[in-house]
Amino acid sequence: MSSRNVFPSEKVFRLMPALDIIPLLDINVIVFGILKVSLALYTQAKILGDIFGLKEFKINVLPLAAFDVVISALLSHDFITQLYVAKNIVPLMYVPILVVIPLAVLTISLIKKGEPKALPLKLE
Which regions span the lipid bilayer (predicted)? Predict the structure, then answer.
């Protein structure tokens, strides 16, 4: 009963017999889910390769995928809990991740770089 309350748009689609939209939504979720996971694994492997100075970062993809599966199995108890976390806890993480960390990295990089030196102009 609670699943019908979670997605009212699905209930509306089921009330329209002429339009069979549910399979299209399923395909959309599958394709973009695979794209999202692939992009996340690529970025994780690339970041680890950059951090540890590895020339070949693709070797990290399989261990990272296994780690992601284990972590997601531990963290996902049920769907309602995931919705609660997405609505109440994830917005609290937006400010540090999207504002504080980039500003800190920018500040550190500007301090390390120092003042930019003017390049001599060559007029030809």
Answer: 21-41, 92-111
Digitized pLDDT (tens) for each residue of the chain, 124 residues in all? 455 556 677 777 777 777 777 777 788 889 999 999 999 999 999 989 888 888 898 888 899 999 988 988 887 778 888 888 889 988 888 888 889 988 998 898 888 877 666 666 676 6
For residue 102, the enclosing domain spans 78-114
State the chain's maximal CA–CA distance in angstroms. 77
Is 119 contained in some domain? no
- Looking at the fold, whether 71 and 82 belong to one and the same domain comes out as no
pTM of the entire predicted model: 0.55
Does 31 share its domain with 16? yes
